[in-house]
Design goal:
The protein is α+β, with helices and mostly antiparallel strands and about 130 residues long. The chain has 2 helices and 8 strands; from the N terminus they run ββββββββαα. A hairpin with a 2-residue loop joins strand 6 and strand 7. It comes from Oleomonas cavernae.
């Protein structure tokens, strides 16, 4: 039995995380699930939430994901996320400023399309702030 599971988190922009770890807890569409070494093969949808990476029996890394899917194979766990952010580098003040800008865009929207885009962006920012 292996003592580590290889985990990679990939977003459209980059490979955000790649390491051998003790455990990963994934926010699955049907509920959170943990992946340990020698986990059975699995493909699952990922919902918006926080991926928790465990080392030395505790959470060592928290990664925000929005959508995507997870695949467990004998080689490890790979999450392909629509969007991913390392919460250790997400500065709350920066995200609060982005939210303020999005809310200003909502108020200044000239039509329903602009308003919907700004509201969608504001909701996405709120999800990051809630996770941080």
């Amino acid at each position: 039995m292996a003592d580590k599971v290889h985990f990679e988190l990939v977003s459209p922009e980059k490979l955000l995380f790649s390491a051998d770890v003790e455990q990963v807890v994934v926010p699955g569409a049907d509920g959170d699930f943990g992946v340990l070494p020698d986990h059975a093969p699995l493909v699952a949808l990922v919902r918006t939430g926080v991926v928790e990476v465990y080392e030395a029996g505790k959470v060592s890394t928290r990664l925000f994901v929005r959508g995507g899917f997870a695949q467990v194979t004998p080689d490890g766990l790979t999450i392909l996320a629509e969007e991913a952010i390392d919460l250790a580098t997400a500065k709350k003040a920066d995200w609060q400023a982005k939210l303020k800008d999005a809310e200003a865009d909502i108020a200044a929207a000239a039509d329903d399309t602009q308003r919907l885009r700004a509201e969608t962006r504001a909701q996405a920012i709120r999800e990051v702030l809630d996770a941080a």
